[in-house]
Amino acid sequence: MSSRESILKNLKAARSPFVDVPPVENRREVVLQDDLRPEALRAHFIKEAEKLSCQVTICASAADAIEQLLALLGDDRLLLSWDLPHIPLPGLAEALEHAGIKIAAPADAAVRVGLTGIDVALASTGSFILFSGPGKPRAVSLLPDLHVAVMTAGQIVPNLETWSATERANQIEDFRQTSSVLIVSGPSRTADIAMQLVLGAHGPAAVHILMLP
Amino acid sequence: MTNKANEFASASRSAIQTPEMVAAVAFATNSAAAKRNIAFEVNGTEHGEALRQQAAEARRRALRKLPELLEQAEARMQANGIEVLWAKDGEEASQHVLNIARQHNIKHIAKSKSMVSEEIGLNAVLETAGFDVLETDLGEYIIQLAGETPSHIVAPVIHKSKAEIRDLFMERLGMAYTDDAAEMTRFARRHLREGFLKADMGISGGNFIIAETGTLCLVTNEGNGRMVTSLPPVHVALVGIEKVIETLDDYATLIQLLARSATGQVMSVYANLINGPRRTAEDGGPERVVVILVDNGRSKIYNSTYAEALACIRCGSCLNACPVYEAIGGHAYGWVYSGPIGAVITPLLTGLENATPLPHASSLCGKCKVVCPVDIDLPRMLLDLRHDLVAAGHAPLLWRMGLRGWAMVSRSPLLFGLVGWAAKWGSKVLPKHRTIPVGPLGGWSKSRDLPEFAPETFHQLWAKREKGNDHEQP
Q1: DSSP character string of B154-215
Q2: Which candidate in A178, A195, A207 is best for mutational testing of the B interface (most B CBs within 10 A)?
Q3: Helix, strand and coil in chain B, % to nearest 5
Q4: Strand pairing report for A198-199 and A156-157
């Protein structure tokens, strides 16, 4: 008998535990939110993201966001980035070219700044979700010291539970087709040395969110 | 990993005699416990408790349907492109990993934290077979450098002071002197970055497997878990068979409670949901993902009155709450899992006879159950294990004799009265603070005042009261 069969056989032969545990009638969301208007969600997201040590800059327009990005790049002439169509900044390609900034291969660990869009943002915890896929390499949000994430306020949903419910209702197949779905909550961190919090353990030491209307 | 749980008494005695370690552990557990408590109180005590019960139900429902959910998880993971292997014990799990490594002609393996891999002693197997294995969680890396074992599920290096880690980095890696934890972390980051880029295989654990979607779930604060599962072309995950959960909704609850319980965070920095290898036209991500479902004693626990122990999500909050763990740290428990959950699952996974002191390594104060995000009744199981120990003849002779004597005395009114009388008068002749100079109670009374016996027994009081009542009755 294979190990698979013998393990399953043992489990099936056992008396099912916890048959008397009643189902939960009213499921709770982990973070209570009473105001779900878009402007309240935006404020909630910003507050929580800042608590996680993210920088959030509200940009009036794509041009404004591009200016912010160029300022963050400073003298760097190389950038890791998702393919530009996945970033909601029309005119970005021209602006980068004009500034003499080139996009490096995604595995180039020497580049300081990584630029991504986001797929969903969660107001309750200040997190954002990144779906991997063609043109959206995982390394861009992982290897650089600074991760710049561009989002629109319309991408904010109340919380992880709302996101999960939407995925289950509509697109669970899309979810399953995505090799890596990543919920990011602030810059990489560790407290392994004497419980002292240090940002930038293996991933980015800083996350800068550029938020478009 | 070798099990030294039966050396608990001597190991905890020497642990108490290392004040730096005790101070480091007490500081870390107290601050983690405080952060956990704040995180559960944010929306009020009632809400925090409701969430705990919701998470408890999710885990118990998954365990109730465990065989069916495992089959569903397997089928859906396979449909997503994940290979699934099964291992009945540690040896078979290690063999699977070795086979995969050999198929790909692997040289360098980067590992993120996996308690199952500690449990089955995977590193030693891989190193003996000639593979270069790098632990990449900062804490685990420090442990690996020092040639030690983790002493906490979540914070493996909780027992080491900053100065000890600095000295280790200076001696082993040639780091320049610094007292700054941030600088030490940056130094380790540079070292480990090279390891990530050179690795041709990544090994991780798994926090959950979602059955309905066929998803492997991993959390990491440092980001090493992402590196290990994204950069090398092969990713192997070792996951206990009990880790399966039913739905993405359950995940939403559990992942948030895991973070709150482990570190007081609202979410771990990276919560990764892995649905398979890189897709066509995707730039990056492993070409092959293998999940090894490891039993190693779990199906036996499943078929026992201890099945509840399998609900554990390895948050470490019972360790942080435990007065015994705080006093002695994790190593004294002798095996991979320490604290209250370790005291329960070490005997269950490695055999009661190999961990006889552990069920007693608790004052049964009950805090571990109160802070458990899935409400595991650890005190109940500790008591039941003590019962099993006695039934299996593992109770010390003196203790058995004492209990037998107690039973004899309690059954005879005459003896009971006599002993009570003797105790009352005997306690009057004891020295100051009523210490007992000799015998098995000597040690106990060294740090405690033996309570003074009441001048009258319950029987005498009762008789008096009844008499009094008679007078009052009309």
Answers
A1: S-TTTTS-HHHHHHHHHHHH-PPP---HHHHHHHHHHHHHHHHHH-SEEEE--SEEETTTTE
A2: A195
A3: 60, 10, 30
A4: unpaired
Q: Which of B296, B330, B360 is the last residue of a domain?
A: B296
Written as six digits, the tokens of B440 are 């098995």
Residue B399: name the closest of B429, B356, B363 by CA: B356
- Would you say residue B452 has pLDDT above 80? no
pLDDT tens, residue by residue, B327-368:
999 999 999 999 999 999 999 999 999 999 999 999 999 999
The whole-angstrom distance between A23's CA and the closest CA on chain B is 7
Report helix, strand or coil for A59: coil
Please report residues of A whose CB lies closer than 8 A to that of B248: 164, 167-168, 172, 175
Cβ A188 vs Cβ A199: under 8 Å: yes
Position B470 scores a pLDDT of: 60
Q: Which residues of chain A have pLDDT under 50?
A: none
Which residue has tokens 């092959």? B288
Do B307 and A18 meet the contact criterion of CB atoms below 8 Å apart? yes
> Would you state the pLDDT for residue B424?
80
Is the same domain home to B199 and B279?
A: yes
Statement to judge: residues B184 and B61 lie in one domain = yes
In one-letter notation, the amino acid at residue B137 is D
Chain A segment 143-172 residues within 8 A of B by beta carbon are 159-161, 163-165, 167-168, 172
Across the beta sheet with B215-220, what order do the strands follow? A156-157, A120-122, A127-131, A180-184, B270-274, B215-220, B208-210, B244-245
Residues 6+ apart with CB under 8 A from A67: none
pLDDT in tens, A48-93: 999 999 999 999 999 999 999 999 999 999 999 999 999 999 999 9
Give which of B413, B304, B405, B189 is closest to A203, Cα–Cα. B189
| Residue in the structure block whose two tokens are 């991408």 | A155
ipTM value of the model?
A: 0.97
pLDDT tens by residue, B306-322: 999 999 999 999 999 99
Task: For residue A11, tell me if it sits in a domain.
Answer: no
Q: What's the confidence (pLDDT) of residue B31?
A: 95
Q: What is the dihedral of CA B107, B113, B117, B122, to 10 degrees?
A: 30
Chain A with chain B: Cβ pairs closer than 8 A: 275
Q: Are A179 and B282 within 8 A, CB to CB?
A: yes
Q: B252-311: per-residue pLDDT in tens? A: 999 999 999 999 999 999 999 999 999 999 999 999 999 999 999 999 999 999 999 999
Q: Is A195 on the interface with B (CB under 8 A)?
A: yes
Which among A89, A46, A87 is positioned nearest to A64, based on CA atoms?
A89
User: Could you give the percent of chain B with pLDDT greater than 70?
Assistant: 97
pLDDT of amino acid B346: 98
Same domain, B250 and B270: yes
Q: Which of B357, B45, B63 is nearest to B208 (CA)?
A: B63
How far is B129 from B98, CA to CA, in rounded Å?
8
| pLDDT band, residue B433 (cuts 50/70/90) | low
Inter-CA distances, A143 with A65, A109, B81, B139, Å: 22, 6, 26, 20
Structural domain boundaries, residue B468? 397-472
- Note whether B91 and B202 are same-domain residues: yes
Which residue in A7, A132, A139 is closest to B299 by CB distance? A7
B301 belongs to a structural domain:
no
DSSP single-letter state for residue A124: T
Instruction: Say yes or no to pLDDT of B443 above 80.
Output: no
Asked if A177 and B279 come within 8 Å (Cβ–Cβ), the reply is yes
- Alpha carbon distance B32, B263 (integer Å): 6
What pTM was computed for the model?
A: 0.93
Please check whether residues B382 and B277 belong to one and the same domain: no
